[in-house]
Amino acid sequence: MERLNKERDLIGIYLSAHPLDDYACILDYVCTANTVKLNNLQTLNGKEISFGGIITNVREGQTRRGSPYTIFKLEDYVGSIEIALFGEDSVNYGRFARVGLAVYITSKVQPKRYRPEELEIKINSISLLSDVKDKLISKITLQIPLSEINEETVTELSALLKNNSGNSLLYFQIIGENPHMNIHLFSRPMRVGVNKHVIDYLKNNLSINFKIN
Questions:
Q1: How sure is the predictor about 178, in pLDDT bands with cuts at 50, 70 and 90?
Q2: 202: nearest Cα among 169, 165, 156
Q3: CATH number among 3.40.50.10940, 2.40.110.10, 2.40.70.10, 2.40.50.140, domain 2-134
């Protein structure tokens, strides 16, 4: 992490890796919003959303009335956004506002209480991504055309799954030439760890489609 931060400070980007790579599957396939969407709240008005990222800047203080506030900057793969917490929200969630922490946030986009013409992100919960990443992906379904199943594919897929054991349930959808020929299968003995390596290998090496959760 220290090396990555130095790269970012020197050249403006993360070069050798990204600090969110361990959580890429959560951000890409579980979260319902990212920082680009969060910068245009009108499209999310009234919706329950989830998003995540790494905290890169924090400001804390008190309002003129003595109420605490916390303002933190959250970055993901596509951009950044600042989120402000006031009063009880600052007390309840401010402990997660620490530079370098990767967090998962659930919230609702709604009109502000005293300025209903403006929208806000009302936070419902904040968790560390490291604590919840194994719980957020409950299953993965591999969608494989029957015509693509051969000894080489089976061998590669078997090795990939065995080398990435985890907690997520594993399902298969074998796709026949006609819809009535599709078969759904469940692997009882195997649990898989759904991570960036597994997803990248499925897409780039095996060309296997998948569905998460």
A1: confident
A2: 156
A3: 2.40.50.140
